[in-house]
Amino acid sequence: QVQLVESGGELVQPGGSLRLSCAISGFDMRYYPVAWFRQAPGKEREGVSCITSSGGSTFYRDSVKGRFTISRDNAKKMVYLQMNSLKPDDTAIYYCATPRPPVRVGTCGILTTEYDYWGQGTQVTVSS
What we know:
It is built from no helices and 11 strands. The protein has strands at about 5, 10, 20-25, 35-40, 45-50, 60, 70-75, 80-85, 90-100, 115-120, 120-125.
């Protein structure tokens, strides 16, 4: 069974940093993109970042560019989201996700409809 488990979310002050982790098991994740999404209270889930299967390409929504960095370690079956210069608007539950086959090699996106397997989420709260 495909499982994604997020960790690393916590309360942090504005301007602080966190690194979220996504552990993937149950399939060979080397061939699939992975994305991070977030959902704030009362808002729709939105794509944050994605990374291609090899890690060769990444994509970020405009509001996090220059602050967040996605990375992956396929040998460890892990994907990370380094978040710096955090703002209160970053407060949300963060989810990692990956698609079912088939997938287009070397591409990724941040639309919810592109993804099939989701983790349970980890809460990030940015507040003084």
